[in-house]
Amino acid sequence: MDSDSDGEDFETEVEEIETKTLGKLKEGKLPVLNSDGTFRCPFSPSKKKQSYKFSEILQHAEGAGKGKRGIDAAGKHRALAKHLKEDHKERARPQAERTIYLDQPLPCRVEKPKLVVPHMGILLNIKNTDIRVSDGFRQGPGQGEIRDKFKVFNPQFVDIFYDQRGHLGCGVITFHTFEDAEAFEHSFKLAHCGREDYERDLRLNNLGARLYGWHATEEDHKNEDQLLHWKIPEFLGIKGDFKNLKIMIHEEKRLMKQQVHQLKSEVAKHRSDVLDSKFELAGVKNRLEDIENKRREAEQENAALVERHKAELEELRSKQVLSGQEHRRLMWDYNRRQAEKMKLLQAKCEDYERNEQAQKQESEAERQRLEAEKQEMQQLTEQAKAQEKLQQDQLELIKKHKQETEAMEMRMQAERTMLAKKQESELQSQRVVEKLEVEKGEVGKNDEEQQKKIKELQEELASIQEDLELQNGMVNVLNSKHMTTNDELQDAKKEAVVLLKKYTADDKAKKVSIKRAGELRVEAWAGPFQKKFKNSKEGWQTHLAKVSSEWDSTLRTNEFHPLKTVQVGTDKWKEIIDDTDERLVKLRKEFGAAVCDSVTTALKEIMTYNPSGRYIVEVPWNYVTDQEATMKDIVVQLGEIIRRKDTMKGPAKRKTPA
């Protein structure tokens, strides 16, 4: 069915081209008649011959009109043939009556012998006069040398024949194509070294040093005239098959039809793939709708988180108030003790000054001791002032954080209010539009009343849209302020983390401190490595350092990704560690679960806090809840540290003078 439809399309296109071209020929736009009465083809300008007789140009047009040169050439040449027959038929000359009859004897038809397939060429009289001195073995050119000599004919294989005395001086060349074999034979014919020349020179014993060759046929296989050594016909019968040109052309056409059928099958398959792609696209659109639903659910969850954050901020504000009161009480008590201490020191100094004249005769050592005590008193005074300034700075920082948190909460509340107003205005605008459409649909029942209602609804819609544009501008301003406030909050958190890192470095009772997320912890590796490498000459510590370093490097590369996605509930997905990963299974089997768990723990922290860079990140951590510390946790911890230091720090003790 496909071939019939293709043929119909071909004929239709050829007829269209023929009609257009015939009109141009009849109008004289495409001249075909030369000034000397001969004809020319306007569609074959590349041909050297442009002077045809009527019969020649007609034969050329009909031959080209068969379609072998394409649709365009077929249509134009058919138009040319039709134009010649219709408009120039008077120039056709009838063939003169023959008066001489052919009475000579005619030769009989002789069929060409079948060719050997794959196509081969026979090579004879190869020089083999060189004799090996050791054993008298005849020597001649080998396969590689002959291949190089005849490389212009694209030889595929070369076979040289030998007997017990050595090189026979003959061989067979296998070619890739029929054209290569024909070119091989033609070159020897031009040099008068073909098959007929070989038969003649062999009869006359006049071969000489000439090399002979021709295209192998079935006659060479039969070797009825004993022209060839018996090994050549035997080789042709084993390696080749015998076919005439008609069969080979038929096989070529059959192969071409198979290729065309295969291409049509591939096109049909491609069309099927396109349809499958369309169905997949529809599936993707459905998944996008599911994702949009999930996004709405995420926004609802985000609103719940905002409410919870608001409650946490209220609780944090109350604790900050209590912490500030406690800190002021401790500072007042500390300043009171420092003032009493300063009064005592001042009284002692006055006593020392009153008794200075009486103590002039004391030893030099006593004078140095008094001088040292005076310097110690000055240092203590300076330390007290520095401590007081540091505590004042810390109070100012906590007060700043509190003000920034309150300001951010107020801005967030204002933003939520504006967003609610915007959404309400949008809903109101939609309702007015719907009413307006309903009123437009009812026009005709009471035109004046309906037109009045429509005008009122349009005015109301314009007013609502103006309010909506104003609210959109205010929402954009609030969003910008929210981003600025969030940046300020992050900066405050960074400063608080710096203080937390400073004051919890040596604190063993810390609840909130800095954790190096993504770091490979090897504390649990000691036991398995001691057990596995107890008899190692290098020591188990060396093996532990080597393996832990390799795994730490593996964790820092993006190629290590032993994760899989599983469904949690009906519409949620979660990424977890793939316990079937080959490297993790091998590590667990070789060193135990504790070593493997330390690797997976570090990987989880990397994927949570730095999945792109994969380097270690310092994170404030609440060791009580075992999760990342909030800003509230950090501020509470800093308040406890300041109160504990104030409680533990008393007036510096020193020896009183005797």
From TrEMBL:
Biased composition (Basic and acidic residues): 355-376
Annotated region described as Disordered, given as residue ranges: 1-22, 355-381
Keyword Coiled coil in annotation: yes
Zinc finger-XS domain boundaries: 41-81
Compositional bias (Acidic residues): 1-16
Keyword Nucleotide-binding annotated: no
Annotated InterPro entries: FDM1-5/IDN2, FDM1-5/IDN2_XH, XS_domain, XS_domain_sf, Znf-XS_domain
Coiled coil stretches, renumbered: 440-506
Domain of life: Eukaryota
Domain Factor of DNA methylation 1-5/IDN2: 515-640
A Pfam short name: XH
Ranges where the XS domain occurs: 114-222
Protein name as annotated: Factor of DNA methylation 1-5/IDN2 domain-containing protein
Organism, as annotated: Sphagnum troendelagicum
Top-level taxonomy: Eukaryota, Viridiplantae, Streptophyta, Embryophyta, Bryophyta
